[in-house]
Amino acid sequence: MLKELLDSKKCFKLVCGAGNEDAVEVEKLVALYSAAGCKFFDVSAKPEIVDAAKRGLQGRKGFICVSVGIQGDPHVRKAQIDYEKCSECHKCEEICPQKTISHCKVKQIRCIGCGKCEQVCRHGAISFVSESKNLNEVLPPLIEKGIDCIELHAMSDDEIETFAKWACINNHFDGILSICTARGKLSDEKMIEQIKKMLERRENYSTIVQADGYPMSGGADDFKTTLQAVATAEIVQNAKLPVYIMLSGGTNSKTTELANLCGIDYHGIAIGTFARKIVSKYINRDDFLTNKAIFNEALSIAKNLINTI
After folding, report:
1. Which of 24, 69, 172, 200 could serve as 153's disulfide partner, Cβ 3.0–4.6 Å?
2. Domain that holds residue 211
3. Burial of 39 (C-beta count, 10 Å sphere; 0-12/13-18/19+)
């Protein structure tokens, strides 16, 4: 059971990307990291992506979490380019960690909404759009397929939508739920207050709080990159809530060491950007799942990362 994995306090969660709707990539990522020992996978809330993750497990034991969000949350938005403003400098293509942009066109299924392209565009040609989803329609087919957790990305000060979607998730699913939250638009006190309200009708230790220090920022492997993840987890820990604490947002191979130095009593670490980056040159190969030598090279890298937890 997922609860037993969290209770072990050695939970490694692979984040394939809430906005990553590339079924081929998701299957490869799950195949690799499940072979390396990962048992918890975060994927986009689409039936075909859940199917891809299950194929990737190849019969191995694994727990699947689907992620949903509210309007404006960076995890569920997609980049778009205004071609009248675009100068075709290609800087967005160079910086995109998902290799989503080619010839100044966005391959929407691969976009994870990280915002790096917007940051380097000097002409204001890039903006983002969030697709509004009715969870009453989205969740039932996913639950029917057999998922183990639902995560709500609640990085917003829009409490009306946050609590409405949280209530909807609770009405549909009686398993473990996850709240992915950060301090970006909330003060420390407001973040904890919001979490407490969301826990009011939840049983103790039936909820994960994913402390997202700096969402989708884990490209580098140093202490500074993961500092905010540890700091956010400490705020949650100090609130003494009956929840499982998961570190995320800028997480890398240094996260465990820094969290232990800071006395963080966490239950797991969720790694997305960094975990995908270190194996990307292998994953992007068409023969990845059939070339044993290539797969094993990537497997060694994935195992090394998991062993840091």
Report:
1. 69
2. 2-71+133-306
3. buried
